[in-house]
C-alpha cells in the first residue's frame, strides 16, 4: 500500500491485517454492552400480562408506514450515491479491507466463519419464523405474532428491493467456501440477523422471566455481530454492505418495536 494512499484506505488495510483481533474486541463489547443495557431496561418493567396485547390494526398501519418511509429514504440515498462516480474513497477502502482479509485471515478461521454465517441463512430463519409465530398465536399473543411475522416478512421484501436500487457487484474471492449470486449492497444476512435476533430478544423481554433477559440480549448480540463479520471475512460482502445492512435492519427493527409499543400504548389508553 503506497504511503500516498488516503488515510481511510490505510486504516482499512490495517483493520484487515488484524481482523480477528478487531472481531474479538467488537464481539466482547457488543455482548457485554447488550447485557448491561438489558439490566438497565429491566427496571422499566417491560414484561406484560398475556391479556395485554397490542392493537392489531394500529400495529399494521404503523409497520406499513415505517416500511414505506425506509424504502423512500433508501431510494433517495441511492440516487445521491449514483452521482458520486466510480473509484470513490469508500470503495477503495472497501477493497483494501477485503484484500487484507484475504491475505491475512487464517484458513481455519475462514472455515469456522463459513459455518457460523449460516445462522443468518433464510433457510434457517424461515422455519424459526413459522415456529415462533405459531407458538405466539397458540398462547394468545396475537399482536406479538403479527408483529413478529411482519418484522421478518418486511425485511425479506425490503432488502431485495434495496439491492436492486443500488445494484452493486460483490467482491471477488477464490476460497470456494461461500457463493452468492445476488447484488451486494446492502447485506441481506446482516439485515435479517439484526431484525430476527433483535425481535427474538424483544419477545424474550416481554414474555420470559427476568432471569432470561440478560442471556437473551447477550445471545442476540453475539449472533448479530458474528453473522455480520462473517460476511466480510468470507468476502461475499464489502464492509460498507454489512454496515448498510445493519443500519437498514436496525431502522426496520426500531419501526417494528416502536409500532408494537405504540399499539400497546393506544390500547391501554383506550381501555382507561
Number of strands: 0
End-to-end separation in angstroms reads: 66 Å
Number of helices: 10
Spans with pLDDT under 50 lasting ≥5 residues? 47-51
Mean pLDDT: 80
Strand content: under 5%
Helix-strand string:
HHHHHHHHHH
Instruction: Label the overall shape.
Output: globular
- State the major sheet: none
Query: What structural class results from the helix and strand content?
Result: mainly alpha
CA radius of gyration is: 20 Å
Helix content: over 70%
Question: What is this structure's SSE topology?
Answer:
Layout: H1 7-17, H2 19-42, H3 56-82, H4 89-104, H5 107-116, H6 122-138, H7 142-166, H8 188-207, H9 213-233, H10 239-271
Overall description:
The structure is a single chain. This protein is mainly α. The chain has ten helices and no strands. It has helices at 7-17, 19-42, 56-82, 89-104, 107-116, 122-138, 142-166, 188-207, 213-233, 239-271. α2 runs antiparallel to α9. The longest helix has 33 residues, at 239-271. The chain is globular, with a radius of gyration of 20 Å.
Q: Which descriptors apply to this entry?
A:
mainly alpha; globular; 272 residues; 10 helices
